[in-house]
Design brief:
The chain is mostly helical and 171 residues long. It has a domain of 114 residues. The chain has seven helices and no strands. The longest helix has 32 residues.
């Protein structure tokens, strides 16, 4: 992640080394019983959240690269970005149904930013047609709307925002 901004930040292994030391210390403390129950659960969730955050960083670095060097976007496949949007979007209803916030955050972020965000970059730099972009936009909006609507029906709520509030708050 750090290397994404190397022209603006110094090239160093300091963030990775610091993260490694903190992670090893947390695991050792958990194994020695020096952490509370809540702390142990937190250490157990670190790997899942780390994977999710790294997964979420991919579109940011891709769009940052596109912004710095727009010629790179010519090598980006619109069909691959559409498939990324569809594939990650297919997991949003599952995350809503099971109330898995980490899964919802990762799949939503990837759908919006990795798939749709890169399609928007492709459209902005005239690499895809207006029709392709509008069709992808309409399909994406319909899918998100349908997922929220069906989840509302399944759980017997009157508003899709109730489902989202319940998912985010964990209740």
């Amino acid at each position: 992640m750090w290397s994404t901004f190397v022209p603006y930040l110094p090239n160093t292994i300091l963030p990775g080394a610091l993260s490694f030391v903190v992670a090893v210390a947390a695991v050792v403390m958990a194994r020695l019983g020096k952490l509370s129950e809540k702390g142990t659960k937190f250490v157990g969730a670190i790997s899942g959240w780390t994977a999710t955050l790294l997964f979420m960083w991919m579109p940011v670095s891709q769009m940052w690269t596109n912004f710095l060097n727009p010629d790179n976007i010519k090598g980006l496949s619109p069909v691959s970005m559409l498939l990324a949007m569809i594939g990650n979007g297919l997991m949003i209803p599952r995350a809503l149904l099971t109330r898995d916030f980490m899964w919802f955050l990762g799949s939503s972020w990837a759908s919006f930013f990795y798939g749709y965000g890169n399609l928007a970059c492709l459209y902005w730099f005239n690499s895809i047609s207006k029709e392709f972009f509008l069709a992808a936009t309409a399909g994406f909006e319909l899918w998100i709307g349908m997922a929220l609507w069906r989840d509302t029906v399944v759980h017997g709520y009157s508003s899709p925002f109730t489902s989202l509030k319940e998912l985010i708050s964990g209740s």
